[in-house]
Design goal:
Helices cover 78% and strands 0% of the residues. It has 291 residues and is mostly helical.
């Protein structure tokens, strides 16, 4: 599975550069447009890299997941919890970036804000709100957890969420992607249905990524104030819901029994994972080189 994710990551980088290079030779005027460059990168990622990774990961046999349904009340409570985890993780990311700035003297940037401000609203709606959640949930929840749940809920949630966070390639997104990934993994383990995590993923990408940038571009302090109040309300409500529901979260053991239950050795001390972690470290290093 890790080799599959490694080739997914490698294919994302190579396909994006190759398509951009080819377009620069054939249509040099087109690649001057930010949306055109973004579309080329998205095509390389979603139509080349993700299918390659999915095919390789699918070679590992999957375990069937029991299908259950969430009530509307449970869904909205989990949505609020997701909002709280995202905001808390985002604050942690800002803190880490601040420390990096103080210790290394590197400027603090947020690649999400940079991307949202450079691309059109139509582009972000298609590729950030729709395409990204569909593919990311399919790979990091369904493909991975269907094959990791044999080790138990805890390993499946932690491994899938960690890799989900690392694949974002920067500290701004690492912590909130990991935190939200844990919740999404739990929801998928309990329901076996990807539609819940896809909708939640789409919501957080829209509400916390696209919407504030769109409001800022409209120069409307009134709308931005309303959004800030809603964000604060969702964070507080999510924290309350997390405390109230904490005893209802249950983690099940897998059907594979490892010596001393040390799944960490199996998960992290293997060639595929070590290669993948090295590649992810390269992504983080590349962010600082670009700065």
């Amino acid at each position: 599975m890790c080799f599959g994710l490694f080739f997914l990551l490698l294919s994302t980088v190579l396909a994006g550069y190759d398509l951009l290079a080819a377009a620069s030779l054939l249509w040099p005027d087109m690649v001057a447009d930010a949306d055109a460059r973004g579309i080329l990168a998205a095509v390389g990622q979603y139509f080349i890299a993700f299918p390659i990774g999915a095919i390789l990961i699918s070679r590992v046999p999957a375990d069937p997941m029991e299908k259950k349904t969430l009530s509307a009340q449970d869904f909205f409570q989990l949505l609020m919890i997701a909002c709280f985890l995202l905001i808390a993780g985002n604050l942690l990311g800002y803190g880490v970036n601040f420390l990096i700035n103080r210790l290394l003297g590197l400027p603090i940037t947020n690649p999400v804000e940079d991307m949202m401000s450079n691309y059109s609203l139509a582009y972000t709606l298609v590729f950030v709100v729709i395409a990204a959640p569909l593919w990311e949930e399919f790979v990091f929840r369904k493909l991975l957890i269907d094959r990791l749940n044999r080790l138990g809920d805890r390993p499946a949630m932690i491994i899938s969420a960690l890799l989900f966070g690392l694949f974002h390639g920067n500290f701004s997104q690492l912590f909130y992607a990991f935190a939200v990934g844990l919740l999404f993994g739990y929801i998928y383990l309990r329901t076996g249905r990807l539609r819940y995590t896809i909708v939640l993923h789409m919501f957080v990408n829209f509400f916390f990524g696209v919407l504030p940038v769109a409001i800022t571009q409209e120069n409307s302090d009134f709308l931005l104030g309303i959004w800030a109040v809603l964000e604060l309300g969702l964070a507080v409500a999510g924290f309350v819901m997390l405390i109230r529901r904490r005893r209802s979260f249950r983690l099940l053991r897998g059907w594979i029994r490892l010596p001393h239950h040390r799944w960490e050795h199996l998960a992290f001390l293997n060639p595929g994972m070590l290669l993948l972690l090295l590649a992810c470290a390269g992504l983080f290093a590349l962010e600082f080189v670009q700065l």
